[in-house]
Amino acid sequence: MATTLIRGGRVLDPASGTDRVIDVLIQGDRVSKIDENLPADGAEIIDATGLIVCPGLIDPHVHLREPGQEHKETILTGSQAAVAGGFTTICCMPNTSPTLDSPEIVRFIFDQARFAKCRVFPVAAGTVGRAGERMTEIRLLARAGAVGISDDGDVIASAGVMKSVFTATAAAGLVFMQHCQEPTLTRGAAMHAGGISTQLGLTGWPGIAEEIIIERDVRLLSVAPCRYHVQHLSCAGSIEIIRIAQVNGLPVTAEASPHHLLLTDEACLGYDTSAKMNPPLREQSDMQAIRKGIADGIITILATDHAPHTPDEKSLPFADAPFGIIGLETAVAGYAQALVETGHIDWPKMVELMTINPARLCNLDQANLGEDGLGELREGGLADITLIDPAHEWAVTEADLEGQSRNTPFLGRQFAARSVLTMVGGEVRHSRLSVSTAS
Ligand SMILES: [Zn+2]
Q: Whole-structure pTM over 0.90, yes or no?
């Protein structure tokens, strides 16, 4: 049995409150011991001095494009980007072709994921074809292994359908993840509605279109209770609605994406399509409000919304280019820059928002899966572990990117932290350290 000793790192496990410089011994696919001065006894040694050792990072919101758009990304290439960014588990959205709306396609994802570099769990659609009309067989999707329900890419616009989906999702024990975009207010929209969209002559996507959906859904939850999660929250007004819902005891959570924490609509100047995303980049005040919403504990999950597209697609005129940017490989660096380096939160909190909180959202934690539970670093648990260098100066280059697509507005950006080793089930799947990697 392969044995590895991660020596002398700052071990952060938010679930147990651990924050100590200590050793971690891994035997086979499990963490066998966490203690001071563990003997090497022939184990392969990883020197983690100065590094953070934490549970493997979990991203509950990625787009892997398989099936149907494998020229952008596949489950395999997306998982390569994931481990390069420190993620050991990713949850993929259902806006594939065909849509992830049947148990067969959910099982197809698990079949393909056997070859992936990290763990992959599908989020299945709430309506057939994500068309917003006919509900999917949510109970069967859950039984096939779906870890959440979402029509991401689109909102479920009909309140009646939404209510039924909430009821069925709750009965299946899953979370509903909403892409909050009122469609009649955002027809043909390409970017945030403001001074810059006017200047560029582009149709605007106002923040109120996000707020209206959250407000509606919060009202629906009082008659159709369900765990409800706001995806890629983009504007200040949304946070206040969520805060009040939480104060009223409703099971509402929210996630923030790196780009909404680091960029504003000014990035669209010059018609730069690498800054085109949905929901769009907004204003400085929104960006600051999202950072504060995280510091205040209203937004408790970080998620990349990794959305690969080809250079040809992103070369289209701004109004026609597809929405979205890749995110897995720059996420740790980006969150650290927006949140830790600015003093909004500390490293233990950032790790919590990227491990145990998304694990609980998607029922991947110990309470649901027992010893195979994810999101924690504990003796007897699965050895999914990420090492982060909190003092690693680097600038993003195309050569750094290991997924299939390159569409990121962060090329050339300087960062000061980086994931440096990713271990999945006791195997090193990616490393920037000088250790031998198991194949
Ligand atoms: Zn979305």
A: yes
